[in-house]
Write a structure and sequence with these properties.
This protein is α/β, with parallel strands linked by helices and 382 residues long. The chain has 14 helices and 18 strands. The protein folds into two domains: 232 residues, Alkaline Phosphatase, subunit A (3-Layer(aba) Sandwich); 113 residues, 2-Layer Sandwich (Gyrase A, domain 2).
């Protein structure tokens, strides 16, 4: 069974919502003081464990990461689900982005929630909740999202950043400079700044690589310089969408070579450390539930303690996706297989070998993937 990871402390869902409430001088879940500007730095792939283990390469951030400044991310530990949680203040089951690739039941297909947006998967209807940026609009608080130009018009941007003015800035230095310009040109605002570099380096080389360490050092220097120039009343929170683990190629498991692990499976979604298995949607509900139970038991029997396995009914009952909107329920796999050991699951029938070169991976429930930093700077420092 998948372990319950329901945090009683601050959550990723509280971060941006609390920032808006800070600007509005309202009580908030993070107990942030009143601010004129609140900046959220979202560092893709920066797990708390990795930051602490490489503290010598990030002296500024590590020195400001107290034990209480580590929070839970979301399950699955993947970017689309986590950023949507940050920007809507709601759990994946509520906003509907419940994984990396998930079932679009109406069209009997898998859709990639990072880049698979099309006319049948509209951002304004697929993502089910209003964003914090839209709430800011209602309160006459300017909202800005700063990221590279390549993401400015993406489907995910329209789904999770709606209500914010998108500011394109390609290099890390340019993004921090853009944030400073927003602060200087407005009386108050909430600002979201996205940092992709560490996640990209981890996927390509691993988080233990020199490339990843170099990106961490650049980030640390940029944040230190930005924080050092903040004027009074400007608060900053640095957090992440998920952490990451390195999985060597010899730890890749080709699940399709064991017939009982794909018996009755129509689609395999999710990602290598968190598979979402979908059965034939035409099955009668009772038959489908029984088939899901049998498939889950097959995975438990074959893979043993290398995985956590649960059916859709079990994960919903356990609250791992939060409250689940009925419109999002079919997007969750009939069976969820989350890697417990340092392994990743692939289909040998995929002739493109997609993803097999990826070293840094995430998606599952380990502390390394789920625990993320919440560094408080400027007016939010403690």
């Amino acid at each position: 069974m998948l372990p319950a990871r329901i945090s009683r402390g601050p959550r990723l869902a509280d971060v941006l919502q609390s920032c808006l409430q800070s600007v509005l001088a309202e009580p908030n879940a993070l107990s942030l003081p009143q601010s004129s500007h609140a900046v959220v730095l979202l560092v893709d792939g920066l797990g708390a464990a990795a930051l602490r283990s490489r503290s010598g390469h990030a002296r500024f951030l590590a020195s400001r990461l107290a034990k209480s400044d580590v929070i839970e991310g979301v399950f699955p530990a993947t970017t689309a689900a986590a950023i949507a949680t940050l920007t809507t203040g709601s759990a994946p089951g509520e906003h509907g982005l419940v994984g990396y690739s998930v079932l679009d039941a109406d069209n009997d297909r898998l859709v990639n929630q990072l880049k698979g947006w099309d006319a049948q998967m509209r951002p304004e209807s697929w993502q089910l909740r209003r964003t914090v940026f839209e709430q800011a609009q209602d309160a006459a608080v300017p909202a800005f999202a700063i990221g590279t130009a390549r993401y400015a018009d993406s489907g995910l941007t329209h789904a999770v950043l709606r209500g914010a003015q998108y500011v394109s800035a390609d290099t890390l230095e340019e993004r921090f400079a853009a944030a400073q310009r927003v602060i200087d040109s407005t009386e108050r605002a909430i600002i979201y700044l996205y940092v992709a570099e560490l996640d990209m380096a981890a996927h390509a080389r691993g988080w233990e690589s020199d490339k990843w360490l170099g990106e961490l050092e650049k980030l640390d220097a940029a944040v230190a310089a930005f924080a050092g120039g903040l004027r009074k009343g400007v608060g900053v929170l640095l957090t992440a969408d998920h952490g990451i683990v390195d999985v060597p190629v010899e730890k890749h498991v080709l699940y399709d070579t064991v017939p009982e692990l794909i018996a009755g499976v129509r689609h395999v979604g999710g990602e290598p450390r968190c598979l979402q298995l979908y059965l034939d949607p035409e099955l009668e509900p009772a038959v489908r539930a029984s088939a899901a139970d049998e498939l889950a038991e097959s995975w438990r029997s074959v893979e043993g303690d290398r995985v956590w396995v649960s059916t859709r009914a079990e994960v919903i009952a356990d609250g791992l996706f939060g409250d689940v909107d009925p419109r999002a329920e079919s997007r969750i796999g009939d069976v969820i297989v989350a890697a417990r050991k340092l392994v990743a699951y692939y289909d040998s029938r995929d002739i493109t070998r997609s993803g097999r070169t990826m070293i840094g991976q995430h998606g599952s429930l380990s502390d390394e993937e789920m625990r993320i930093p919440l560094v408080r700077l400027g007016a939010f420092a403690r």
